[in-house]
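Give me the fold.
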Amino acid sequence: MNETNNKKTSLKDFLLSTVIDPVLWYTALIMAALMYHYSDWEETEIHAAFYSLRWGAVTLAAGWLLFRVFDFMQKHHLLGSLAYLAVSLLIGEAFRGAVNKGSVNYPITWGLWFLTPQDSMNYNKWYAFAFYMLFMLFMASVIYYFTKVRYRIFMNFLIFIIPFAIYGKEYEKMPTIYIILLSVGYVLLMVYYRQLKDDENTIFVGRRKSWRTIAVYAAIFAVISAIVPKPAVEADRTILENLISAEELTSRLDAMLNVFRNVSNGDQFRDRSRNRLVYEVAAAEPLRIKTATRSTYNFETDEWNIQDIDDHYYSASKGTPFDIGTKMGLADAFMEAARLDSDFADKYGLNGYLSEGLAEPKVNHVVFYLLNGLIGLPQGTDMAPVPQGAITMTDCSVQNKTARLIGGTVLSVNTPFPSNARFEFDYSANTFFYSPKNREFIDHIDTYDYKQLLDDTYDVLRRELAGSTDPDKVRLYNYFEVDYECYDQYLEYLLDYGNRKRIKALSDEITKDCESEYDKALALESYFYNNDYTYDLTYDTSGKNAEDFMFVTKTGVCYEYATSMVLLARAAGIPARYCEGYNMSDRLERGNMPNTTYGISLQDAHGFPELYLRGYGWLSFEPTVSDNIITKKKTSSTDMLSRAGMIMLVGSLIALLFALVYPWLSHKFFILRSKKRLPADTVRAIVHRICKVYDIDEANTSREVSDFVHESTGADISYTAQLFDRSEYGGENVNIQEKEKALSEYITAYNAFREAKKRRRITNR
């Protein structure tokens, strides 16, 4: 063996051994995976794959040269360190030059480019080259050091997850083959340098046999990884993901946050590939947020258009608090008029409701933090995020001149709210119709001439409350006045469904058994859930409209569902409007702002219908079959891996724990079983057990087994070996005392094996 080790290595053997170095190939694989992320996103996936493979090939060549420097460092510490320093300075200078070239006519720095999701950026080859050089030096250095110089499995695991951390900045399609190869490569590399590396105390003579087992394991792992479906989950996005180009984010936020767009066609609800946080929210429950309303639908273009009742504001105020609504909608106004005027109460039969009262919803508080300023973008929004059931905007970080639009949204009149604006609201919980008493009240109101009821209510409130200084009464009067003066416009604009006969027939069919407007609204809302409608972000709706959605395709996003319910409600005689905003449902694990519990992202953008129910006013509904869906086709490999990776990690930890505990459990279980066995059976089992523990081929004789155990650990099992021969081949009986002595020798041999293994002195036979 010494002669073999001292034999001179030829140049051919040296080149062959260094080129097939598994550490070098693993480094090349990691760099290829990383460079796939920084490829040109305007090109095809095949182009990106070849792009990354080219960088992998470059890494094989450049890494081979670096590894020779590292080898030199191990033999000549001082000169080797100087050589490494020289290489680092050379690479650093090349990095600086590439960054300077890349920054020419490019709007952001390399650091911001590196932190930014790449699908939002124009491809920059010089920045990509700079990234490669920096990470090539880092990856090659740490992987080499923590495998060949100082084996550290935990450090190698941290290196292994770096590519996934970089991909975790955004949704993208990391090739599954890279995930599998990285995982298998990591496992094989750790096995190789932990178990199969010879040292001065250990010579492994069964390498080929062990590698066969490891190769089978690797193949099985790769196959299972490839064929088992990967669950898709929504990644938890952080504020760092919002660092994208100002030009793109400006247009996106302008479309999503601001109201003054002439038309809306639902395109913003189909692009769910990005998930930029817009608001962080301190709230006690999920909320529906409104930022815009639309009143006129064009069947030819499948678009909603603004009317005066959408962008006209009835009242404006400088600063806060700023009143928006009341706790129970119009029911508050009718009950207040009945309290103020007994004749009114008698005329509309409200005395019983006055004495018993209605079930008032709980008033909650919510705080919205706009995140534009936090990510360095100067623009804000002209629309405040208004929660469903908003009563008062109690505070705003900047006291702009603010107006309540007729549609129930809040506008900054002269200048947009700042990019770091904070909005605080009191709002009424959406529980009014949960109460049977409240629903009975609304049904009762609906039995009267509604227009006359509005006239009489307005007369009472104007007579009794005009000039009042009570904030609650002023709020109630102002809210009712807006609704009263706009009611004719509701009937003019918000009952138009294009006189489509099919829509009218369907609406009548759905609502034929309903007695109240609220029951009709619920029936229309439920219709989509019970009739095989499908939510699909990728479905092409070009050339189609809401009528096609209702009767032909039955496939779309929230835009189609909301539009259809609005038209069906109008056909049923209920004024309705199309609204846009957000569905807030994603909880934050850790926010950037004080006490925030929810996040609102561009991905939460939502379209929904609002229906005007006589006696109550405006109430939103949710006909969309499935909300906040991220299409599986657009879910990144990183996101698919997140849950699978967690399962793999937990499974690996369980397997590792079992592997660590199993020998001890097996040993204890063997002793327990031996006490119940016959003496001769116990001796036979002990010899087989020792062969298994020491990994001795059972073709050896009992004496050879005894000699090997003694040579390996110093333990003496010669008495047990003699008992085995006498019992197996001589047919002699074994008594209890002999059994106990053999069992004692086994325990001694097992403990000696464990101690020797800790000193890493035992190898397989």
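DSSP finds 27 helices and 21 strands in the chain.
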